[in-house]
Amino acid sequence: MRPDAVTNEEPGGSDVPGVADHVLEVRDISRRYGDVTALRDLSFTVRGGEVFGFVGSNGAGKTTTMRIVMGVLGADRGEVCWQGRPVSFETRRRFGYMPEERGLYPKMRVREQLTYLAQLHGCTTAEAERGTDDWLAQLNLTDRAQDEVQALSHGNQQRVQLAAALVFGPALLLLDEPFSGLDPVAVEVLSGVLRQQADAGIPVIFSSHQLDLVERLSDRIGIIARGQMVASGTVQELRQTDTEQLWVDVPAATSGWVDSVPGVTTLQHDGSRWLLQLAPGVDDQTVLRAALSTGPVREFARHVPSLGDLFHQFVTEEKVR
């Protein structure tokens, strides 16, 4: 991890009474596939009652991490702990997992399948049936309860997969690309469920390539690159930096107008609009004076990076190392 990356591991607390600060802890896990290092000393924690967004490029190690947490894969080194203790088989029975690939029986009917899966997680028949009916109703699937899974649309199959992760009342939710291929209505339904679970004190971890969605839903975010956590924290914390970025629109300026201002780097130039980065200690008023000397200034505003901008920044920096 880069030395100045935000880790946000300081003491703090969930607002949910009786929920431990750090419920899930992934401690220095590493995993190799032959000559390929999938994970290298990866560590992070997830508190009770928070949504943790896990982002990274394809092959960065997100799915491998989730599989290790679930016990589907073993780590070559490191450990996964729950409430301060190494995770056991019995503990993992309380984890709800939604894999990116379909994990359902295609020819089994929806209600029958959910009831069966709930019982595998330790529910009685009555508990399994009650949980199944509750989640079918919440996810607008009641009218498809007797359909085979293979007869459902992609979006409805996603909803059934989510119901399978929730039907037994999990203590932890792990969702690998749960929004993939969903329409806007289904995205809002799933988003509401994740928030509902977190508000009930359940830690929620989900991965997604839809960074605007991750930014909107997550309490904290972890950015993984080449098997390492390169930054984690709230979006606001990830935005904190010693440098400032400005958008400046100077329609009459020549291409070299900013070269006379020490400590200013051009990050982007599109027509008359410039994105500038100021080194620590550079006064933005110096930049404004230089801009005004070229003629009218149509825009002079601080740039607030999106999660997409931050992701690109951290991953690019990691590649350069």
Mean pLDDT: 89
Enumerate the spans where pLDDT stays under 50 for 5 or more consecutive residues: 1-20
Let me know the CATH homologous superfamily of the largest domain: P-loop containing nucleotide triphosphate hydrolases
Task: Assess the beta-strand content as a share of residues.
Answer: 25-35%
Helix/strand layout:
Elements: E1 24-33, E2 36-46, E3 51-55, H1 62-70, E4 77-82, E5 85-86, H2 89-92, E6 95-98, H3 110-120, H4 125-138, H5 154-166, E7 172-176, H6 184-199, E8 204-207, H7 211-217, E9 220-225, E10 228-233, H8 235-239, E11 244-249, E12 264-270, E13 273-278, H9 284-292, E14 299-302, H10 307-320
Parallel strand pairs: 3-8, 3-9, 6-7, 7-8
Antiparallel strand pairs: 1-2, 1-4, 4-5, 9-10, 11-13, 11-14, 12-13
Helix pairs in contact: 3-4
Which descriptors would you attach to this protein?
321 residues; alpha/beta; Rossmann fold; Alpha-Beta Plaits; six-stranded mixed beta sheet; four-stranded antiparallel beta sheet; 10 helices; 32% helix
What does this structure look like?
Helix content is 32%, strand content 26%. By secondary structure, the protein is an alpha/beta fold. It starts with 23 loop residues before the first strand and ends with a helix. The longest helix is centred in the middle third of the chain and has 16 residues, at 184-199. The relative contact order is 0.15. The model is unreliable at 1-20 (pLDDT under 50). The protein has two domains: 24-238, P-loop containing nucleotide triphosphate hydrolases (Rossmann fold, 3-Layer(aba) Sandwich), CATH 3.40.50.300; 242-320, Alpha-Beta Plaits. Strand 7 (172-176), helix 6 (184-199) and strand 8 (204-207) form a beta-alpha-beta unit. The chain is elongated.
